[in-house]
Design a protein that fits this description.
This protein is an alpha+beta fold. Helix content is about 40%, strand content about 10%. It has eleven helices and eleven strands. A five-stranded antiparallel sheet has the order 10-9-8-7-11.
Length: about 350
């Protein structure tokens, strides 16, 4: 019998002693043979290691074989590779992905694991200094997992917007929760509609719009959640001019969490790849958000968001939409998405050359 890191487990091994959740509940009983999906469940519940039968205690971890850092020997005698600071962000992100997937899939039959979600969200946010809104990309982007990635990225971005907008610190984690769970009502939507690559019929559009109401109703059964988190699920498709849904609320009637999450949700919805559409340039999306701030989105939140995420130092390397690569040499705060870019010694003024834009940051 040996204690094996979850990352080193393979399907087919037998558990030698019961595995418990962080809250003490039994996750798997002694003697269970692990299936492939069980490995995802162990990661989702942040189980670090399990006792298994017939295993050698000297296990080489392959979690970081792609790392450029050298191997180190742990106090337990296992060989692992050093993680770079951003590697740990990806580790916590992937754990959050597994947990939110299992939570969405189980909420119709059981309670939302709020404490487990909060603990993992805190672990992820502890790595926030390595997260860049415009450049971060999930390592393994399964197109069917779009809504889970959107939720996690909306959580991180909403947390930052809350900070930048001057909300009290007590609200930051709650706003992140609002971003994480804003689309949980999709768990009740017919998958044929949810994942349809074709334009939706009017009836299907109405069904999709029900995810806001479903989300509020589902979260209302979790007393540990802030009411603002529930309202963000209900209101994140409302518009400040009253043209949104489901209640056609105006901006003054929308909870501040909802107004923040609306911005983060739209940004990530447009910059993530979907099955039927490629990811859009983050700079073009910022310009669309700015256009939407006139009557649709909270203008103060949009402006704060754009100003903060475009604060790059001169010398930042970028790729333009015509595939040329250059460096930012000057940013005009009146046109934050269209700086001056030096390309092979030639200055490209993106304010004047509107047909060009920054495709991505290198």
């Amino acid at each position: 019998m040996a204690s094996i890191s979850v990352s080193d487990l393979k399907p087919g091994v037998k558990i030698a002693s019961a595995v418990h959740t962080p809250l003490g509940g039994v996750l798997f009983n002694k003697g269970k043979i692990l299936l492939p999906r069980d490995l995802d469940i162990l990661q989702a519940f942040l189980v670090q290691s399990v006792e298994v039968e017939g295993a050698d205690s000297k296990v080489v971890s392959t979690k970081e074989t792609g790392s450029k850092n050298g191997p180190v020997t742990s106090s337990a005698g296992t060989v692992e590779f050093e993680k770079s600071p951003q590697d740990q962000l990806y580790v916590e992100y992937d754990r959050m992905l597994n947990l939110i997937k299992s939570s969405f899939q189980s909420i119709l039959a059981s309670e939302l694991p709020v404490l487990d979600l909060r603990n993992q969200l805190e672990a992820l946010i502890s790595q926030l200094k390595y997260y860049n809104v415009l450049t971060f990309t999930p390592r393994a982007m399964n197109e069917y997992d779009y809504m889970y990635h959107n939720g996690i990225l909306s959580a991180l971005t909403s947390y930052l917007i809350a900070q930048w907008s001057g909300l009290p610190q007590k609200d930051w984690m709650q706003v992140a929760f609002a971003g994480l769970l804003h689309d949980i009502g999709n768990a009740k939507i017919d998958p044929k509609v949810l994942y349809s690559p074709l334009p939706l019929s009017s009836d299907e559009v109405e069904e999709m719009r029900m995810h806001t109401t479903y989300g509020y109703q589902m979260l209302r059964n979790s007393p540990a959640l802030n009411e603002g988190v529930r309202l963000a699920a209900l209101q994140h498709h409302e518009k400040v001019d009253g043209s949104g849904y489901p209640l056609r609320l105006t901006g003054d009637k929308m909870h501040v969490y909802s107004r923040i999450v609306a911005v983060a949700d739209i940004f990530h919805a447009m910059t993530l790849k979907k099955r039927y559409r490629k990811a859009q340039s983050p700079y073009l999306v910022l310009e669309q958000l700015q256009a939407e701030s006139f009557g649709k989105l909270d203008p103060a939140i949009v402006q704060t968001f754009i100003n903060k995420v475009t604060q790059f130092h001169n010398g930042t390397r970028v790729r333009l939409s015509d595939e040329r690569v250059g460096e930012i040499v000057f940013s005009d705060r009146n046109h934050p998405t269209r700086p001056l870019v030096s390309v092979n010694g030639q200055i490209v003024n993106l304010v004047n050359e509107r047909h060009l834009y920054i495709e991505n940051i290198i």
